[in-house]
Design a protein that fits this description.
It is a single chain. The chain contains eleven helices and eight strands. It is of the alpha/beta class. It has a single domain, classed as 3-Layer(aba) Sandwich (Rossmann fold), CATH 3.40.50. An eight-stranded mixed sheet has the order 1-2-4-3-5-6-7-8, with helices on both faces. The longest helix is centred in the N-terminal third of the chain and has 15 residues. Keywords: Oxidoreductase, Peroxidase. GO terms for molecular function: peroxidase activity.
Length: 275
């Protein structure tokens, strides 16, 4: 399996499809998943002539299950190591959920010429946990409950969590069991320890300053019925902090909309990349 080894000896697995001369798009997955969550998008964009790359974050998927470094800054350092190793230039970086936070911090830090555009999909930005500066955020007690479930009941929790993740618990929405099991499979492949610490990484990292530093074109995509990272506290606020950012919100769409509504998401991302 293709991988790089970081400075702390962590192996980061990645997929790299398409011509090396094509315009690169790098995908960043959400918690607690893997690069497999982007398969539909990667197939779509490689067939459009792009080079597509996606990695498994440390502690996730096929990457090393490390006891340390399960925090946003180290996640981004791993992305820097991978993009340097692959020498990605003028790449489009697309992040979902936790991956959206990872993209925001990476793009804010990236050297000139590395990034051409960014797309934040159902992203945890600008700051997920409820606080004085984010009164509409997710209450810490809810995040603590996720920690407890990961620590004591991970397998069942991951299966149950797919219901609000994809809005399969909404009246009139057809439940797709294979999609639920694919989410569960990805989650259970990763490290319980990394996933436990990853909750703080995605919910307690403040991205306000990162968003303000971004100077490349950014597209923010968010479902208006996102039960995991609610639109009003995330996508709607994120676009206000990035100069010139575009926002598309989707009535009724869930947190996992790249899977449930791939056609709409792919179309809007492609239009943005080509613009």
């Amino acid at each position: 399996m293709p991988s790089i080894t970081t400075s702390d000896k962590t192996e980061i697995f990645y997929k790299d499809w398409g011509s090396k001369d094509a315009h690169p798009i790098m995908f960043h997955h959400g918690w607690p998943l893997s690069s497999d969550d982007w398969d539909t998008q990667m197939l779509f964009f490689v067939n459009q002539g792009y080079r597509v790359i996606a990695h498994d974050r440390r502690g996730h998927g096929r990457s090393s299950q490390t006891a340390t470094g399960n925090d946003m800054d180290t996640y981004v350092d791993d992305v820097i190591a991978l993009t340097n190793a692959l020498d990605l230039k003028n790449a489009v970086h697309i992040g979902h959920s936790t991956g959206g936070g990872e993209v925001a911090r990476y793009v804010a830090k990236a050297k000139p010429g590395r990034v051409s555009k960014a797309v934040l999909v159902s992203a945890v930005t600008p700051f997920m946990v409820q606080s004085d500066i984010n009164p509409a955020g997710t209450p810490k007690k809810d995040l603590d409950n996720i920690r407890e479930q990961v620590a004591t009941n991970r397998s069942k929790f991951y299966y149950d969590f797919t219901l609000p993740f994809y809005n399969f618990d909404r009246v009139g929405v057809e439940v797709n069991e294979p999609v639920r099991w694919n989410w569960w499979r990805q989650g259970m492949t990763g490290s319980a320890l990394a996933h436990y610490h990853g909750i703080a990484a995605f919910s307690e990292t403040n991205f306000h300053e990162d968003l303000k530093k971004i100077s490349v074109p950014v597209l923010v995509l968010h479902g208006e019925d996102d039960q995991v990272v609610p639109f009003e506290a995330s996508g709607k606020q994120t676009v206000k902090l990035i100069k010139g950012a575009q926002l598309i919100s989707y009535p009724g769409f869930p947190h996992g909309m790249p899977v449930t509504h791939a056609d709409a998401i792919n179309k809007d991302i492609l239009k943005f990349i080509k613009s």
